[in-house]
Amino acid sequence: MSTAAQSLNLTTPTDREIRTERIFNAPRERVWKALTDPKLVAQWWGRGNKLEVVKFEFERGGHWRFVEHGPEGSHGFEGRYREIKPQERVVQTFEWDGMPGHVIVETMTLEDLGDGRTKLVNVSLFHTNQERDGMLNSGMEGGMNESYAALDKLLARLG
Amino acid sequence: MSTAAQSLNLTTPTDREIRTERIFNAPRERVWKALTDPKLVAQWWGRGNKLEVVKFEFERGGHWRFVEHGPEGSHGFEGRYREIKPQERVVQTFEWDGMPGHVIVETMTLEDLGDGRTKLVNVSLFHTNQERDGMLNSGMEGGMNESYAALDKLLARLG
């Protein structure tokens, strides 16, 4: 089993979507826990910045809201859970306070690779191509790499 | 100036949009007030049913939430304001509790027809064609006609 950092594979399947794929060196149950326990989410989602979990109603129809406190200021993010299939799949919306009313649908899938590793696939669907491109140009990929590096460390600590 | 009830003109400009157009026999300022004062909204939005205005933060980034109490049960609706241009334009999101995480972007425009009448244009943008068709098949047109008939009456009372 490799312990080297895995790389993020980002593609654009359609003109309104972004798909990312990332392998984690941890079994699916542990990855699921890190993604769905608010105390653990607070340890990686904010890329090392302090993350305030304001709301985490983890059920269909429930709302979530995080505020990330970074050196350059605070940013609020929120959304609502559309679908939850334990260990396998979460569909939720995502909205940044800086662009209110611009709502992304995120479909997150966890795949057990059978060798103690887990593949996390995230597909983001935007209302328009412009919103999709705005996200691509926002430094999203670097931000995800930072978050996932923090998640790598958390998963190792939990092991 | 006609006082006859006006008809709703519904079209589908693209496969993810619904556009409606409706004329009201009232000046734009009065229509704007009926659309943006929560006490007035409660008198027409719910099609004659009791409407509870839970949240009405009418500013960019603010949230709104209504609960309609009808004979067949209660339905919650909510969203967030993306853009407000007084007297002219509101862009907001719309989500029904029954389908959480399915978010519509609504762009509402008021046009002063110059003869004491006002044209209200509403364009709804969906993430997918299936969601758009689901809305078309939900009885939306009948519901809008009921709401707008209640709005006609309210505007006449305010005159």
List the SSEs and their pairings.
Two copies of one chain form a homodimer.
Chain A: E1 9-11, E2 17-24, H1 28-36, H2 38-41, E3 50-56, E4 63-70, E5 73-85, E6 89-96, E7 104-112, E8 118-125, H3 129-136, H4 140-158
Antiparallel strand pairs in A: 1-2, 2-8, 3-4, 4-5, 5-6, 6-7, 7-8
Instruction: Indicate the mean pLDDT of chain A.
Output: 96
Number of strands of chain A: 8
Number of helices of chain A: 4
Q: Which stretches of chain A are poorly predicted, pLDDT < 50 over at least 5 residues?
A: none
**Helix/strand class of chain A:** alpha+beta
Give the chain pair forming the largest contact, with residue counts.
Answer: A-B, 20 and 20 residues
Q: Biggest β-sheet of chain A, characterized?
A: 8 strands, antiparallel
Order of helices and strands of chain A: EEHHEEEEEEHH
Strand order of the largest sheet of chain A: 1-2-8-7-6-5-4-3
The oligomerization state is homodimer
Helical content band of chain A? 25-40%
Description:
2 copies of one chain form a homodimer. The first copy, chain A, is of the alpha+beta class. In chain A, 25% of the residues lie in helices and 40% in strands. Chain A has 4 helices and 8 strands; from the N terminus they run ββααββββββαα. Chain A has helices at residues 28-36, 38-41, 129-136, 140-158, and strands spanning 9-11, 17-24, 50-56, 63-70, 73-85, 89-96, 104-112, 118-125. The first copy, chain A, has an 8-stranded antiparallel β-sheet with strand order 1-2-8-7-6-5-4-3. The mean pLDDT of chain A is 96. Chain A binds chain B through residues 60-62, 79-83, 91-93, 95, 97, 100-103, 105, 125, 127, and chain B through 60-62, 79-83, 91-93, 95, 97, 100-103, 105, 125, 127.
